[in-house]
Design a protein that fits this description.
Elements (H helix, E strand, L loop, with lengths): L4 H12 L2 H14 L2 H26 L2 E2 L6 E2 L2 H8 L3 H34 L1
Antiparallel strand pairs: 1-2
GO molecular function: amino acid:sodium symporter activity
Subcellular location: Cell membrane
Pfam families: Na_Ala_symp (PF01235)
Length: 120
């Protein structure tokens, strides 16, 4: 079975809001002062723009699976189809596997470890 629209929405929302958005704001203001808020707004506008473009490309280049009749897509698909470069699509997919498998987890673990060490 596939995801319901609500499950897809909540999963997308969870990937956008996380420990990095909470701890990152606190660290930026602590190190950079109140002026850091302006630059966070600037980067937020750029981030929203790139998220919109990524979502649009994912809708344009999605593929219907012939067996399950569900859609498949994402960055690896639109890189492979839009840029017509299967090699770059595979490299991007492998980079995402590494990043989500190791790098993002270490950010979460570091935030939990710091919070625990300061609490006890």
């Amino acid at each position: 079975h596939g995801l319901t629209p609500f499950q897809a929405f909540v999963t997308g929302l969870a990937s956008r809001v996380g420990v990095g958005n909470i701890a990152g704001v606190a660290i930026a203001i602590a190190i950079g002062g109140p002026g850091a808020v302006f630059w966070m707004w600037v980067t937020a506008v750029l981030g929203m723009s790139s998220a919109f473009i990524e979502s649009t490309l994912a809708q344009l280049f999605k593929v219907r699976d012939s067996n399950s009749k569900q859609f498949r897509g994402g960055p690896a698909y639109y890189i492979t189809q839009g840029l017509r470069s299967k090699t770059f699509g595979v490299i991007f997919a492998l980079a995402l596997i590494f990043t989500y498998g190791f790098v993002f987890n270490s950010v979460q673990i570091n935030a939990i470890a710091n919070a625990s060490s300061h609490a006890w």
